[in-house]
Design goal:
Elements: H1 2-6, H2 10-35, H3 39-60, H4 66-86
Helix pairs in contact: 2-3, 2-4
Length: about 100
């Protein structure tokens, strides 16, 4: 396993990490748009989400080690997007009791 790490393409690994971070960032924005029932932004974020995810999927299916970089990038993207959205007021939950 360590020999495999020694031959790892670092730029490609960083590309997978960045693309999965961007993918999850966009996915959270897509989910927020869906929750807010905003059709055009939801559709737009959905298409961007699929475009971004294709790089990571194509890359790490050739080398399973890239899945670890995808997981780290996924976490970073979701964390960053939630940080961005934290300051915005959330739409009311459809499951919340009415006042």
């Amino acid at each position: 396993m360590w020999e495999h790490l020694a031959h790892l393409n670092v730029l490609l690994a960083l590309g997978v990490l960045a693309s999965t971070a961007a993918t999850d960032f966009v996915y959270v924005l897509f989910t927020a748009a869906v929750s807010a029932r905003r059709r055009v932004p939801a559709a737009t974020w959905s298409s961007v989400w699929y475009l971004l995810s294709s790089f990571a999927v194509i890359t790490y299916t050739r080398d399973p080690l890239f899945v670890a970089f995808a997981a780290v990038g996924s976490w970073l993207g979701a964390f960053a997007s939630m940080t961005l959205l934290h300051g915005r007021s959330a739409p009311p939950s459809p499951l919340a009791p009415s006042a």
